Structure of V-set and transmembrane domain-containing protein 2-like protein:
Amino acid sequence: MGAPLAVALGALHYLALFLQLGGATRPAGHAPWDNHISGHALFTETPHDMTARTGEDVEMACSFRGSGSPSYSLEIQWWYVRSHRDWTDKQAWASNQLKASQQEDAGKDATKISVVKVVGSNISHKLRLSRVKPTDEGTYECRVIDFSDGKARVSLCLLVPHPVPSRGPPSLTLPPSSHPLLGPRGVEW
């Protein structure tokens, strides 16, 4: 059962990447998804869905360029939104980036992980998770607050499959008294 589950999770991961890139959801003749919130504000680096093994370290990068002069503030917030097993709304598979005003607030099932603030027009932050485990699996969001322009967010799905136990040959341990060569008292010469 472990191998078919790993194959299914891998296929789901690649399907999600395909849908995020808009290959299956963008009607013919329409412009590609954009990452602008308004004017010239945009994400310059976005996190991508990933699969990690238990115990690995992962890094999620998010960078944003604001639209105003360098005299205003930007803020990046990293959120753990929910486990993908709890998803009922698959909108994130079609586009991992939507204006915050177009999405519902995360509500009770979201946890703020970190906040970085800068005065200027560019902000970047990498969220690092050390020694991930299956309970770290789920949706992570990079939310940007552009205090002169609005809010934007991008999200990714982190998959951490449960480790599949190795299936080596079974081992047999006999107590010394029942070992055919040793007899009840051990080796005699």
